[in-house]
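Protocol step 4 of 6: structure prediction from sequence.
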Amino acid sequence: MVTREEHDTRERFRDRYREDRSDVVLQIERSVIGGDWGANGYTTLSQADQLADALRLAPGVQLLDLGAGRGWPGLYLAVRSGCRVVLSDVPLEGLHAAVARAATDGVADRVAAVASSARALPFQAGTFDAVVHTDVLC
């Protein structure tokens, strides 16, 4: 069941995730973040690499990315490390963009998306080997 807060969050982010990112936005992301991964925040490529190393991400590792938006950094981490990732967020439009990006990047077989608040995740304890949440206000 979707809570009122989740509904409000979906409404607030719907248009933001639906709009195409302009060339200027992509150039800024590449310059500031270090890549074009659909970032909504300020976590850099270098910081995402540090996460991958600290979490020992590798093939066979199951990662949960909370507040994934368009898939940053979860998709990047899947591409970089070979891990499997579940992208979780409330706004559906961001998750749709992330799933499309996963297909484009050839990692769709290792990526799943779940529309869920971090407060009420539909997973059993121990499902994941690692969890990330970057640029997320909980």
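Step 5 (inspection) to follow. The chain has a mean pLDDT of 88.
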